[in-house]
Amino acid sequence: MHRRRFLRRVGAAGGVATTTGLAGCSAVGGEPDYDVGMVADGYRPAELTVSVGDTVVWENTSARTHTVTAYEGGIPDAANYFASGGFDDERTARDAWQSDFGGGLQSGDRFTHTFEVPGRYDYVCIPHETGGMYATVFVEE
User: Fold this and answer.
1) Domain count of the chain?
2) Please, which pLDDT band fits residue 31 given cuts at 50, 70 and 90?
3) Do 19 and 75 reside in the same domain of the chain?
4) Which CATH number covers residue 74?
């Protein structure tokens, strides 16, 4: 087990976790080492603001399998598409999930993406989309 994950679990169980200023995640003994956590029914935080050139790290902090899948119509025109599993477009990501759970992130798995174009980026967890698991990254100059 990773040290930070162990400390988060022990701290949460003991009620001593502290909230840090980074992306609303909590950790014991320091800053979290991810920007967005995936809980059972959502992304935490659901909105994140970063600067052009920043890399965002998502970590699945739940027992459920999740994805990070950009809505193709929900990202700037000049932006690179992103999805866990490395898919080039939304249709391919959705087809891969439907055929063999492609792009799925298990508990403790991570996905990263570097944002090079300013704008709004909407994304979704494919298996939990109907339950409202979607979020947004705002990228500023």
Assistant:
1) 2
2) low
3) no
4) 2.60.40.420
**Percent of the chain residues past pLDDT 70, beyond the cut:** 78
88, two tokens: 């080039």
Distance CA 9, CA 28 (A): 9
Is residue 61 domain-shared with residue 5, that is, in the same domain? no
Kindly give, in sequence order, each residue whose CB lies less than 8 Å from that of residue 6, ignoring residues fewer than 6 positions away. none
| Measured distance CA(27)–CA(46) in Å, rounded | 18
* Cα-trace Rg, the chain: 15
What span, in angstroms and rounded, lies between the C-alpha atoms of 96 and 26? 32
Across residues 56-61, what is the average pLDDT? 97
Distances (CA, A) of 130 to 18, 24, 34, 52, 127: 32, 24, 25, 31, 8
Note down the domain range covering 10: 1-32
**pLDDT tens per residue across span 66-102:** 999 999 999 999 999 999 999 999 999 999 999 999 9
pLDDT tier at 32, thresholds 50, 70, 90: confident
Together in a domain, 61 and 113: yes
